[in-house]
C-alpha cells in the first residue's frame, strides 16, 4: 500500500515536469551581446549575477527547471525583466544605458540585488567587494571622464573641454588631470540631490596604501566633484549636470597661511573660478575645521579602510 502511494507521487512529479513555464522552455536563449561599450570585466559581473533574471540570456541549473520550482524562477524572470532588461542594451541611447548601470549599482549597494533567495542556491552570483568595486569605479570614472555625462548637461552642446580656465583668486590654476586620478570615495546612496565623487592623485593613493594620511604628505591632491542627480523615467538615478569641482593641494610651506592646503573651486560647465577675494578660502577652512585633527580632510578613515580592502 505504502509502496503504491510513493509510486503514485513519483508519477505525479514526473508528469508535472511536462508542465513548464514558457520562460524556461526555450532552452538556452541567444546570448546577449555583452553590453557593448562596457569593459569586459564589468560586463562579466553583471552577466554572472544579474542576467539570469534580467536578460534573455539565462543559465539556469537543472534544479531550477524542476516543476514546481521553475514557476517561481519564471516569475522572477518575468518580474525581473519588467524592471530591468539588459537584452535591450543595444537599442538604448547612451544616457539610458548610463541610467541602467547607475540603477544596477544602486540596487547592489543597497543589497536589494541580486535576490538573496537566488544567491543562496547560486553562490557564484554573489557579489564580493571586488565585483562591486569594479562596477563602482567604472561608473565613477565615467561620470567625469567622457563626453556622455556632458551630453546630458542643460545646454547639451556636448562640449568636452574648455580652452582656457581662469585661475582661482588665490592664484591656484585649474588641474584638468584629476579625471585620471583614482576615485577614493563617493556617496553610496545617490539620494541627496547631488552625486559626489572624491578623487585622489597618485601621492594621495600611495599615502592611503601606506597608511600615512595624518598628516597627508606634501604633493597630495584631492578633487571633489559634484553632479546634479538626474532621474530617468524608470526612477533610476544617474549623474546629470556638472555642478562643480573643488581641490585641496597639500604643501606645508607654500600654503602655510591656509592650514597647509591650497583651496580652489570651479563651478559649472564653464568652470568659472569661485571666490571674490584672495581670502575666499577662509570659507573652505572654517567648514573643514571640525576635521582639524584629521589634517582638515573629511574623507577618512572609513572610506579609506574600505578602499584598502579591495
Ligand atoms: C533571482 C532573480 C534576480 C536576480 C539574480 C537579480 N534580480 Fe534584480 N530584480 C528581480 C526581480 C524579480 C525584480 C522586480 C521586483 C523587485 O523589485 O523586487 C528586480 C528588480 C531589479 C531592479 C529594479 C529595482 C527597483 O527598485 O525598482 C534593479 C535595478 C535590479 N533588479 C538590478 C539587479 C542587478 C544589478 C542584479 C545583479 C547584481 C540583479 N538585479 C539580480 C530579480 C532578480
Ligand atoms: C559647508 C561646509 C563646506 C564648505 C564651505 C567647504 N567644504 Fe569641502 N567638504 C565638506 C565636506 C562635508 C566634505 C566631505 C565630503 C562630502 O561629504 O561631500 C568635503 C570634502 C572636500 C574635499 C575632499 C577631501 C575631503 O576633505 O574629504 C575637497 C577637495 C574639498 N572639500 C574642497 C573644498 C574647497 C576648496 C572649499 C572652498 C571653496 C570647500 N571644500 C568648502 C564641507 C565643506
TrEMBL record:
InterPro entries: Cytochrome_P460 (IPR032033), Cytochrome_P460_sp (IPR038142), Haem-bd (IPR025992). It comes from Pedobacter terrae. Pfam families: Cytochrome_P460, Haem_bd. CDD domains: cyt_P460_Mc-like. Residues 10-143 form the Haem-binding domain. This is Haem-binding domain-containing protein.
Amino acid at each position: 500500500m505504502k509502496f503504491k502511494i510513493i509510486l503514485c507521487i513519483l508519477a505525479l512529479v514526473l508528469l508535472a515536469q511536462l508542465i513548464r513555464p514558457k520562460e524556461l522552455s526555450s532552452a538556452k536563449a541567444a546570448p546577449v551581446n555583452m553590453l557593448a561599450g562596457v569593459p569586459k570585466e564589468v560586463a562579466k559581473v553583471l552577466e554572472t549575477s544579474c542576467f539570469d533574471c534580467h536578460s534573455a540570456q539565462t543559465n539556469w541549473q537543472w534544479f531550477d527547471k524542476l516543476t514546481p520550482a521553475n514557476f517561481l524562477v519564471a516569475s522572477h524572470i518575468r518580474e525581473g525583466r519588467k524592471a530591468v532588461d539588459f537584452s535591450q542594451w543595444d537599442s538604448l541611447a547612451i544616457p539610458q544605458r548610463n541610467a541602467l548601470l547607475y540603477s544596477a549599482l544602486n540596487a547592489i549597494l543597497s543589497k536589494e540585488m541580486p535576490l538573496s533567495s537566488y544567491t543562496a542556491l547560486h553562490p557564484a552570483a554573489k557579489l564580493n567587494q571586488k565585483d562591486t568595486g569594479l562596477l563602482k569605479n567604472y561608473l565613477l570614472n565615467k561620470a567625469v571622464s567622457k563626453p556622455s555625462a556632458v551630453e546630458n548637461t542643460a545646454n547639451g552642446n556636448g562640449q568636452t573641454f574648455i580652452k582656457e580656465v581662469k585661475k582661482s583668486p588665490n592664484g591656484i590654476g585649474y588641474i584638468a588631470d584629476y579625471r585620471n586620478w583614482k576615485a577614493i570615495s563617493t556617496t553610496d546612496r545617490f539620494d541627496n540631490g547631488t552625486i559626489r565623487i572624491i578623487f585622489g592623485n597618485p601621492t594621495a593613493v600611495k599615502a592611503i596604501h601606506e597608511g600615512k594620511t595624518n598628516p597627508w604628505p606634501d604633493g597630495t591632491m584631492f578633487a571633489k566633484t559634484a553632479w546634479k542627480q538626474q532621474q530617468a523615467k524608470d526612477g533610476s538615478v544617474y549623474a546629470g549636470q556638472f555642478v562643480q569641482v573643488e581641490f585641496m593641494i597639500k604643501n606645508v610651506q607654500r600654503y602655510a597661511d591656509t592650514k597647509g592646503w591650497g583651496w580652489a573651486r570651479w563651478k559649472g560647465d564653464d568652470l568659472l573660478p569661485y571666490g571674490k577675494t584672495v581670502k575666499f578660502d577662509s570659507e573652505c577652512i572654517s567648514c573643514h575645521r571640525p576635521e582639524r585633527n584629521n589634517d582638515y580632510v573629511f574623507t577618512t578613515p572609513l572610506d579609506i579602510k574600505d578602499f584598502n580592502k579591495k
